[in-house]
Amino acid sequence: MMQKLLTLTLLVAFSLSACARQPQVGRGLVSAANIDCMARAMYFESNRSSRDGMIAVGSVVMNRAQSADFPNAVCAVVSQPNQFAPGVMTKAMDGAGRALAKASAAAVLAGERHPNIEGARFFHAAWYDADFNNIHYVLTAGGNAFYEKRRPENVTSPDPLPQTEGITG
C-alpha cells in the first residue's frame, strides 16, 4: 500500500512539474504584455514586412518557452540578454510593420505556428554564414534562416534553404 502511495505521489509530482514547463496556449497567453513582447521580437527580428517571417520568429519564441533550456514565459524569453536584436524591449515600433507584428503576435499566442518550424529554437540573419556542423536548417523566411541544433551525423540540411513566403495565413 505504501509503495503504491509513493508511486502515485511521484507520478503526480512529475506530471505537475512537466506541466509547469508548458506555457499556456490560447486565451490565457493572449495578454497585452505578451502581445507586446512577442510583437517586439517579431518586429525587430523579421524584415517588418513578412508575415511568414514574423510567425516563424514567434514559433521559435514559443519553442524556447516550452524548452527547459530557456525561461518559460514569453517576455522572459524575448528579453533574455544577447538572444534577440539589441534594444528589442526598448526601441519604438512604428509604421505598418508594427500593426503586422501585433496581429502576428496575437495569432501565435492564440496557437498559430509556422508549419515548417517544428522544433526549431534558433535563427540567424539569412545572409550570415554560420560555419557549424550541428545546424539543421528548416526554413528561411522574413530575412532569417531558422534551424535546429542536431548531432552532426543527423544534419541533413546543412545550408540555409531558399527564401519561402506565403505559407501562413
From TrEMBL:
PROSITE patterns: PROKAR_LIPOPROTEIN. Keywords: Hydrolase, Signal. The keyword Ribosomal protein does not apply. This is Cell wall hydrolase. It comes from Yoonia phaeophyticola. Residues 50-147 form the Cell wall hydrolase SleB domain. GO terms for molecular function: hydrolase activity. Residues 1-20 form the signal peptide. The keyword Nucleotide-binding does not apply. Coiled coil: none annotated. Residues 150-169 are annotated as: Disordered.
